[in-house]
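pasting input
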Amino acid sequence: MTSHPETQTVRWTRIASSSELDTGRAVMPVTLAGQRYVLFRDDEGQLGLIGRNCPHRGADLCFGRLEDNGLRCPFHGWHFDRTGQCVEQPAEPEGSTMHTQIKVPMVPVREEGGVIFAQVSEGERR
Amino acid sequence: MISQELNDQITRIGPETQAGAVLRRYWQPAALSDEVQGDVPVPVNLMGERLALIREGDGLLLITRQADPSEAPTHHPASGDIREVQGGPRYPAVDRAGVVFAYLGPGDPPAFPNFDCFRAPEDHVFAFKGLWQCNWLQALEIGIDPAHASYLHRFLEDADPEEGYGQQFRDKAAHTDMPMTQVLREYPRPDIQVDETEYGLRITALRHMANDLTHVRVTNQIFPEAICIPMSREMTITQWHVPVDDENCYWYTVFTSFKNPVNKEVMRAQRLKEHRLPDYAPLKNRENNYHYDPAEQERLTYTGMGLDINVHDQWAVEGMGAIQDRTQEHLGRSDVAIIRYRRMLRQAIKAVEEGDEGALPMRGDDVTRLVGPLSNDSIAGTQDWKSASRAADLARRAECPWDATV
């Protein structure tokens, strides 16, 4: 994967300025090619751009709890890392591995000079 | 995940729909009794139909009113502006437990069950309603999901239970000094058991605690779209999730008190403060982000949306979209009652389609025989939780001045 904006196969689109996330709680909604996402910055300072509705029953992750190096759904505590991988389902039985099978859509992002870009695949380019 | 076709089948309730045909075979809350104290007709928006309540003799009747297709789903025209559609459908309506129920289906309406909310005296029940901007099924499904209370309604600090009159989860747990909020927070992984009953489902959430004790919370699904759950040691909640149309619904709640009469003035004032009239839309809503406060979310509540758990539920179900896209859902073990309920609804849809009305629950001659249902929080020894839970409920009923025997 290249991060160069002029490449034939990968394009980047500006989705936010870094300062928009400097509000004490680094979570904001982003709409990209008609799809709804949530952008957040985790404890490691890295950005995640993942599907906005929780894959469990569809709650809105824009109101998620930003904690434990990811975003946690307030409905049942499902926890997602910046890749969109579900890493915890605290209401499921002890030892359940269901979470390993659950991943929300993730769009690669990069941050340069105070601007945040999201990768747009060719099929989604407008 | 389910198919789009199945999602449409179990959510859409207009006059020519499959789930609509099921719901129409049961009494539906149409208005609060409070709403018909003044001028009639009173506008009613129910099951995708534009209706109005009028008085007829000593009783009430639901007529079809003229309406512009472009008017808002919860449009509430002034009484003097309501005109009946001549020759349009008219439906029977009755006033029970502070709620006006209407029957929009074919043939004779079923009898009312002898549930606590319908047999308690007038001064022991209080009814209220509120608008949620989403489909009725996702509103019902949050009510049959006992796990969410440990997260969505988590309080990071416990309030004094003595200050919690008339509010859910604000009492002490059973006969302990532990606030309910603490039990929910410290035991977030309930073991959920679901039993099919004559009226719907009995849902038991077991939270296994220290010292071989178990917190037992018994709630119920009443077919087709109600729940009956404990609110405090004193009161239960019976709540219907009634479609306005496919994308809006009202919750109608009857609060039923066992021992003491309900303090209706306090209950009404608590809730009027959070709603606007005449459409009973909540003042905290999607347009103002439910008064979401990130600082509060960090230190006090799980949602950052205040202490009223109705607002938490409203956020959860409205955030799913007008009709939850169940082609993208992933149900877990904690959703066992939701899975069982959808199966019952599909069986009822099939029964109506095959003309097998006798197979529908809660429609037979024996409906008046149904009492309770038992809805209770208790703490019991882990070995005998079942009998201890029942005994705790019977003790409450024995102290009750009205006939609450089961």
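fyi Strands of chain A lie at 10-17, 27-32, 35-41, 47-51, 65-67, 70-72, 79-80, 86-88, 109-112, 115-121.
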